[in-house]
Amino acid sequence: MERRGAAAGGGVCMCQTLFPAHANHRGELSAGQLLKWMDVTACLAAEKHAGVSCVAVSMDDIQFEEAARVGQIITIKAKVNRAFKTSMEVGIKVTVQDVLTNVEKIVSVAYATYVAKPVGAGKIELEPVKILSTEDHLEHTLAIERRRIRLGYEQVFQNLMQESNKEGDYCDTFEEKDAVSTDLTHVQSIELVQPPHANHHGNTFGGQIMAWMETVASISASRLCRSYPILKSVNTFKFWGPSVVGDRLVFNAIVNNTFQNSVEVGVRVEAYNCEEWIKDQARHINSAFLIFKTVNDKGELLTFPRIKPTTKDGVRRYHGAIARRRIRLARKCMLSAKGDKPSDPWERSNQAYVSYSNIAALTHLAAKPGWEITSTLDDTKIWTHEEGDVLSLKVEMQVKIPSHLAFSLLSDFTFRQQWDKHFVTCEVLQTVNEDEKIYHVTSPPMTGHKPRDFVILVSQRQPCKPSEPYIVAVKSVTLTSMPPSPEYCRSEVLCAGFQIYSGSNSSCTVCYFNQVTSGVMPYLAANLTGSSKSIEDTALECIKFLERKCSRY
């Protein structure tokens, strides 16, 4: 297997002034044109890293936050965040700048997966991305989490569909009076792939296919709203196979479901060469689900009518749209939480995104610049970080124990009572998977208050390479099976956990982080004023516990 890769992660930037030819009837950059530019920029970044031609495999959910207008400047930046042997994640950031006001806004942030196109029969193994900045390190770390979500998406979707079957959602759903038949929204379009539509590999340009899909989906949605729909988001473009110059591409679009102010349109793309066209032997090359909204002249959101599927396949697509929406809402809730405790119950559609949010929050906290050292004592250092009203704590400990063993002991919170006096009890409520557990923890009362309790998710990750840390991330979650009790004051952990770095075969550096809440503040305040050594004492007990346990192995 040949190895390819550039020294740095392959950053590419494209700037473009928007002209009327790029715009729709509203004078805004057309979504299809933007998708083409995003694909070109991402492909160039992938090829800069790989050193060979690359092709798109998929593009994750795309959210369009701002509209870009004629006369403004669009900037698209793309870089390879991480290489996974034969595939790589490319991060794409789109911003728009107003020339007159100089105000810059984010239009979209997306992540695409590309693979190097082999010259012969074998696959090309990619070189790792070289980390050049703190931001590179952050994205490199989180790329592995996003990959976990991609790989697990189909299973989550199937689980939700099975739940829908069990709950009997397929019965008596389509009897609304004024519901519109989905048959009226079906649109078919055929495109002949010509040389201007092909990329430099001779294949149909992926961005062109996405643009054609947006066009046919927009027409389908317009049959419901009787106006011009606006693309709000895309639920994953997946490229199942290539097409080439001379192929006929058949696009079939139909509304799957409506949700008051939005509509989901499914698009399926099939390709035919001349022989396949005569024999009616289609190649399924692409699928995507596009979500549209529509507004009136005042910019107010309009309501879509309810729809009524007329076939068994239509019913399946109807409920599939509901499942995808649940996943989108979970993703939006968890990834925008910024440390807040999620309000939704712990369910299958949430799990991957809560885990991602947990790991991401700790990784972001650890990578923040501006940590200030406040105390040094033997093998322990205490750091603090202030950002606005948020105060965070970091405790760095040098421990004579192999890193993998420290990780094993610190990730099992049932051991925590043996070294942390703030843990009175710790019970496993749910083993989500081999890397995630939910615990119920009780803590002693502070003067004049009831004892506190927590429901926390503990997510653990092993490093993919020696230079990366072991991670144990902690945050509060809500479990309907464990409501607050009058006996305790329910408290929360915003963001906490450990990063464990290997030193030698018999030593490691353990870093504990905590975004300070009201429950932790008294201990930190006492430490900073010198009236208490509670944090240093707990760190010392942690070191003793780890080294004592190590001597028994």
Automatic annotation (TrEMBL):
Q: Which Pfam families match?
A: 4HBT, START
- Give the principal location in a single coarse category: cytoplasm
Coiled-coil regions in this chain?
none
Q: Which UniProt keywords apply?
A: Cytoplasm, Fatty acid metabolism, Hydrolase, Lipid metabolism, Repeat, Serine esterase
Q: Where in the cell is it found?
A: Cytoplasm, Cytosol
Cellular component per GO, a single term: cytosol
Q: Does the keyword Lipid metabolism apply?
A: yes
GO annotation, biological process: acetyl-CoA metabolic process; fatty acid metabolic process
* Pathway(s) of this molecule: Lipid metabolism; fatty acid metabolism
What are the recorded GO MF terms, alphabetically? acetyl-CoA hydrolase activity; carboxylic ester hydrolase activity; lipid binding
Assembly, per entry: Homodimer or homotetramer.
Q: If you read the UniProt record, what top EC class would you report for this enzyme, in one word?
A: hydrolase
Described by its record, this protein's role is as follows: Catalyzes the hydrolysis of acyl-CoAs into free fatty acids and coenzyme A (CoASH), regulating their respective intracellular levels. Preferentially hydrolyzes acetyl-CoA.
Q: State its Enzyme Commission number(s).
A: 3.1.2.1
PROSITE patterns, alphabetized:
HOTDOG_ACOT (PS51770), START (PS50848)
Q: What is the name of this protein? A: Acetyl-coenzyme A thioesterase
Q: Which organism is it from?
A: Cochlearius cochlearius (Boat-billed heron)
Gene name per UniProt: Acot12
Judging by the UniProt lineage, the source's domain of life is Eukaryota
Q: Which residues form the HotDog ACOT-type domain?
A: 8-120, 183-298
Its recorded reaction(s) are: acetyl-CoA + H2O = acetate + CoA + H(+); butanoyl-CoA + H2O = butanoate + CoA + H(+); hexanoyl-CoA + H2O = hexanoate + CoA + H(+)
Q: Report domain START positions.
A: 368-553
